[in-house]
Specification:
single chain, mainly beta, 2,3-Dihydroxybiphenyl 1,2-Dioxygenase, domain 1, 2 domains, nine-stranded mixed β-sheet, eight-stranded mixed β-sheet, 19 strands, 15% helix, disordered C terminus, binds fe (ii) ion
Length: 301
């Protein structure tokens, strides 16, 4: 099986390259590593050559997700394994700066993925201005065929399923983070949100103050989620994508198929389960986060 172990990067197409690049550089506190001749900006949260890529486009959308893989398999062997599951992929050389070889493929839900073993680590370190999250934590995608897409991530790319919210959202991980990917049943292929890990509740306060200085309102939270128990707050980037800042995410132990115990867990040990609500604290959402992908009458608090 393919051994995906890290969410590496997300590439966004945007109509306003300077606004989105400026948001990630000045507001989020990523380091601008390079701007290519084709207008693409490559930004790093601290170690990798890039964790966010911003590229000019006629519309604003998530273009692709990069996943780092380990294990014994070469990219050619990974390509062969994908083929055996009916997934075609293309081996690309020097397609992205900092990555000598990658495999490009489309998951069953229609999201383009890059799989790669190595990325250059110029290690610019953490910036001293802006929000400066620890890392890119997870991405939530909405797809028309959630079950088929979830099966692909579990059966082909080796993800574990850690929780569900109703029959709407499935939480998946490729490492000890409770989730590195959410797959939501949706009317179309969309990115629901992208999330960055903060260090503490104090960091949430500092981040909200920094967003306020930039006139970016916090749309919901901070409040503790049920699935993952992360303390989360959401705002919009300049392209109106939902950006989640989170801390305190559950740690998943695959060997035990449970979460590392925490005092706020409802049962001990806490196993993957189905949740009915989004907020453990009962906080109402100022914005209908789930309604984006659901019928109105199915809205969850
Ligand atoms: Fe999230």
């Amino acid at each position: 099986m393919v051994n995906v172990f890290k969410l590496g990067y997300a590439e966004f197409g945007t109509k306003d390259i300077s606004a989105l690049t400026n948001y990630y550089s000045e507001v989020m506190g990523f380091t601008l590593i390079e701007q290519a001749d084709n207008g693409k900006s490559y930004l790093s949260s601290g170690v990798d050559h890039h964790n966010i890529v911003v590229t000019p486009s006629d519309s604003s959308q998530l273009n692709k997700i990069g996943w780092q893989i380990g294990g014994e398999l070469s990219l050619k062997e990974v390509s062969q394994q994908l083929k055996e599951h009916g997934i075609s992929s293309e081996l690309k050389t020097d397609a992205e700066p900092g990555i000598s070889q990658l495999l490009e493929l489309q998951d069953p839900g229609g999201t383009i993925l890059n799989l790669y073993s190595d990325i250059k680590t110029p290690a610019p370190g953490f910036k001293e201005s802006g929000i400066v999250p620890n890392k890119l934590g997870h991405i939530a995608i909405g797809v028309k065929n959630a079950k088929q897409t979830v099966d692909f991530y579990k059966q082909v790319l080796g993800f574990w399923e850690t929780d569900k919210i109703g029959d709407i959202a499935t939480f998946l991980t490729c490492n000890s983070d409770h989730h590195t990917l959410n797959v939501l049943q949706s009317k179309s292929t969309i990115m629901h949100h992208i999330a960055f890990e903060l260090r503490s509740f104090e960091h949430h306060k500092d981040s909200s103050d920094k967003l306020a200085k930039q006139k970016i309102p916090v749309l919901w939270g901070p409040s503790r989620h049920t699935a993952g128990h992360n303390i989360a707050a959401y705002h919009h980037d300049p392209d109106q994508h939902y950006i989640e800042l989170f801390s305190d995410l559950d740690v998943y132990i695959p060997e035990l198929d449970c979460m590392d115990p925490r005092p706020w867990h409802e049962t001990l040990p806490l196993k993957p389960r189905v949740w009915e609500e989004l907020s453990y604290w009962g906080t109402n959402f100022d914005q209908d986060l789930i309604g984006i992908v659901m019928k109105e009458e199915e809205t969850i608090k």
